[in-house]
Amino acid sequence: MKSNRRLLNRILGLFLIFFAHSNVWAASLTASVNKTKVVKDEVIQLRVISDKKLSRDEISFDVLSDDFYLGRPNFSSSVNIINGTRQDKSEWTIAIAPSRLGKITIPGFTVNGVSSAPITLNVTMSEQTFNADDVIESRYDIAKQSLYPQQSVMLNSRVIIKTDPRRLQDPKLTSPESQKGVKLTAIGEPKQYQAVLEGQDVLIVDQSFQVTAQEPGRYTIEIPTLTGSMLLGDNRSGTTRLVPLSPTAKTISIEVKAQPSDYQGQWLPADKLSLTQVVVDSEGRPLTEQETISLQVGDSLTRTLTLTAQGLTTEQFPTLAIDNPSGFRVYSEKPTLDNHADGSSSMTLTQVIIAQKTGLFTLPKVSVQWWNSQKDTSQVSEVDALQVDVSASEVAHLPKAESLAQPTEKVVIVDAGLWPYVAAIASALWLMTLALLIRERRKPRTHIEDDSQPAATTANNIQSVLLAVKQNNPVRAQSAFDLYKRSTTLSADADKQIQQQLNQFHQSHFGKQPVAWQSDTLQNLLHELGKSHAKQVKASPLAKL
Questions:
Q1: Digit-coded pLDDT (tens) for 491-509
Q2: pTM to 2 decimals?
Q3: Dist CA 146 CA 144 (whole Å)
Q4: First-to-last CA distance in the chain?
C-alpha cells in the first residue's frame, strides 16, 4: 500500500509540473496594426496583446522613435474567470505615424522570452501637401537693434496658431537662446488667449524678453515659434496623418557698438534718463518750489529722488551718494526698484532729514552722468540743491517767556504801593531800609520762578516724546527727545537705553531691512524718567518768603 501511494504521489507531481510548464508554453504575445499600406505621416494604431498578466513597463516603444512619430501608449490589464477557468489579458495601444518613405519594419517585442512577430509597412508619399507656415505664424516687435554694452531693449514676440489647438500633439514654444555677446531673459510667463485675426479664430501666445548687450559685435536671435506635430485628416481617404510642425524661424540681427574710448565716469548707456526730486514737510506739504525752506530745530522734511531710465536694467542703476550737512540727522530708506510695462525702469530713494542745529544749510544737488545712445553723447541729469534756514524751536522758549512775565508784573504792584511812604518820609536812612526790603522780597520770588521754568519745560518734552511714540512717528519722537536732553541733565545709562529704543523705532520705519518693533519698552522708560523727574522737583528746597 505504501509503495502504491508513493507511486501515485510521483505521478501527481509530474502532472503538476507538466501543467505548469504548459501554461508558460501557452503564453503568447501578438502585435498588429490596422493597416500596412500607409502614406507618410499617416496615423495608424499599433496593438500588442499578451495572455498573461503583465505590467505597463514590460514593453517599451522607444525602439520605434527613429522611424515613427509616437503618441502616448495606453495600457490595460484584465482577468476573466469562466466556469472556473482563469483568463488573463494585457494590452498596449499606441498611435504611430511613419516619418519616412519606403518599407519600414516594426520589430518584434519580447516579454519573458516570448516574442511577437515583426510587421512590415509600405510607406508612400501623400498627394495632399502641408505647409506649417500656414498654421503657425511668428511676429515680433523690438524698439531698436543697435545697442551699447550693458544697454538693454525689450523684445516682444507673438506666436499665432491658426488651427484647433486640440489637433496639436506635444506642442512646445521655443525660446531664443543667449549668445556670448547678448543675454536674453524671459520676463514673466507666456500669455495665452483666444482672438479673431482677419476673421479667423486663432490662439495667440505672447512672450516678452529683455535683450542685454554684453560685448561688441553682430549677433542673430531666433524669434520664438511653436514646434511639435499636428493631426491632419484626409476627407477623401478618411485617413488621419500626424504631420510635424516645423515653421520657418524668423531671426533678428543685433549690433552691439563699442564703448567710446574717451568716455569718463560710470558707464550708463540709455535712450532716456531723468532725475527728479520731491520735498515735503512732516505734514506732507510740498516744499520744492520754495527758494529757501524754513525749519525749526526738531522739524523734519522728506526728500524723495526718482531716477528713471529707458534702456537700463535695475541692476545697473548707480548708488546715489548724498553728502548732507552735519546739522541734520538723516534716515535713508532702502531704494525701491521697479520695471515698467513700457520697458523703462526706475529707482526711488527717500531720505527723512531732521534739523538739529540752527543756521543756514545747503542740501547738496544730486547729479548722474550717463551716455545718450540716441545722440551718441555724454549727458548729466541733476536736481537742484536746497537752501534750508533752521531757527531755534519756539516750543523750548515759550514756557520761559511766560514765567518771566509774572514776577515783573508783581514787582510793579509792590513798587506802586511803596511810593506814598517815600514821599512822606524824607529820611535817606528810611529810603535805604525800604530799598533793602524790596530787594529781599524779590529774591525768593525770582528763585521760585527760575526753578519752576525748567521743571515745566522738561515735563512737556517728556510728554511730547510719548505722544510721538503713540502716533508712530519716529522723527517727532527723536526731535522731542533731543529737546528734552537740552532742558535737563540725563544719566548716561538712561540716555543709552532710550536712544537704543529710538534707533530701533527708526529702523522699523526707514531701515534697509525693516523689523517688527514694539513701543512698550520705550514708553516704560519714558514713564520711569517722568516719575524720577517729578520726585526730584518735589524734593527741591524752596526759599523762605
A1: 888 888 888 888 888 777 7
A2: 0.57
A3: 6
A4: 144
